[in-house]
Design a protein that fits this description.
Blueprint lengths: L3 E5 L8 H12 L5 E4 L6 H11 L4 E6 L1 H11 L6 E5 L5 H5 L6 H9 L3 E10 L2 E3 L2 E5 H8 L2 H7 L1 H13 L4 E7 L2 E13 L22 E7 L3 H12 L9 E6 L2 E6 L4 E4 L2 E5 L2 E14 L17
Parallel strand pairs: 1-2, 1-3, 3-4
Antiparallel strand pairs: 5-6, 5-15, 7-9, 7-13, 8-9, 8-12, 9-10, 10-11, 12-15, 13-14
Helix pairs in contact: 2-3, 6-8, 7-8
């Protein structure tokens, strides 16, 4: 086991605290590791940055959910120190896509055993890096309405249910989205930027394969037609001039995306509210190296054939 710094977020964990402590004692009790348990007001990025400056670890191990992992990874960007993920949160989307074991014990064993390193991209906004997704509209309202207690009790189902109810009560607003400088205006309920954690198995037509190391950010626009346009669309469907299509368009950015709206909207990234519109997200290729199992690669495939923005 390399010299490690271990960050644990018990507040985001669905793992029994006693079980987690036993795992820490087993894997790091006799190692030159420093273990820090987060408190409610702590920020993962600040703790990891301090550890890098003071302890000079060769590895940073993070036990927590996607938000904690994202904060820690943000501090590691630009360094040669890799990240080991121990998924103990409510969603664990990044770990799942990277093929990291869901079992905390197996994930910790990976840190000291055979593994590979995978350099993943990030999204930068206002000097902070994010690794999963960001959005304004339904997604930010979902994050705003979702309680920590519901996340702990119901896990991913809490996000799904809250997202459905949020979408039912979301009025469309005019959006202006610029993708690598090309502007697009539309009236809709959501703009989502996705770097990782989005999986459709099996894949559906029109939905791109999204990998966290593909050097691109995928953008999902959920639009709402005008009343006249909606009636026209329904008429075409009834007349069988065209099939029913979801009100979703996928685009791709290689550099940056800016989001503005007809009214100020909250913005979420990696499950936390981070600000309001207007906002700009920039791609940071290969931002951080993550320990992944050597015998497999993340679920997913090539991004060939997905639409560019």
């Amino acid at each position: 086991m390399p010299r490690a710094f271990v960050l644990v977020n018990p507040m985001s964990s669905r793992t029994d605290p006693r079980e987690l402590q036993e795992l820490l004692d087993r894997f790091f009790g006799d190692e030159p590791a420093r273990i820090r348990v987060m408190e409610k007001t702590d920020k993962a990025s600040e703790i990891v940055q301090h550890a890098l400056d003071e302890l000079r670890p060769e590895l940073v191990v993070v036990a927590g959910g996607d938000g904690t992992i994202s904060g820690a990874a943000s501090a590691l960007s630009g360094t040669s120190v890799p990240l080991a993920i121990v998924p103990t949160g409510t969603a664990n989307m990044l770990a799942e896509q990277l093929g990291i074991p869901a079992s905390p014990a197996e994930a910790m064993r990976l840190a000291g055993g055979e593994h590979s390193l995978r350099s993943i991209d990030a999204m930068e906004c206002d000097g902070r890096l994010y690794f999963l997704n960001a959005g304004a509209g339904v997604s930010s309202r979902t994050v705003q309405d979702l309680s920590d207690e519901d996340k702990r009790r119901f896990g991913r189902m809490a996000y799904i249910w809250t997202g459905i109810t949020s979408s039912l009560w979301s009025a469309p607003v005019p959006f202006r989205v610029a993708i690598d400088g090309a502007e697009r205006d539309f009236r809709g309920i959501e703009v989502t930027i996705i770097n990782a954690g989005f999986r459709e198995q099996p894949g559906f037509p029109g939905v791109p394969d999204i990998e966290p190391d593909d050097g691109a950010l995928d953008v999902m626009l959920v639009w709402t037609p005008t009343p006249v346009g909606y009636l026209q669309h329904i008429g075409d469907v009834v007349a069988k001039k065209r099939p029913i299509e979801p009100n979703v368009k996928w685009m791709r950015a290689r550099k940056e995306i800016s989001i503005d709206a007809g009214k100020v909207l909250p913005v979420q990234a990696d499950g936390d509210l981070i600000g309001k519109t207007p906002c700009v997200f920039r791609l940071v290729p290969g931002a951080v190296s993550v320990l992944v199992p050597s015998e497999r690669r993340a679920v997913g495939g090539s991004n060939e054939g997905a639409p560019d923005g």
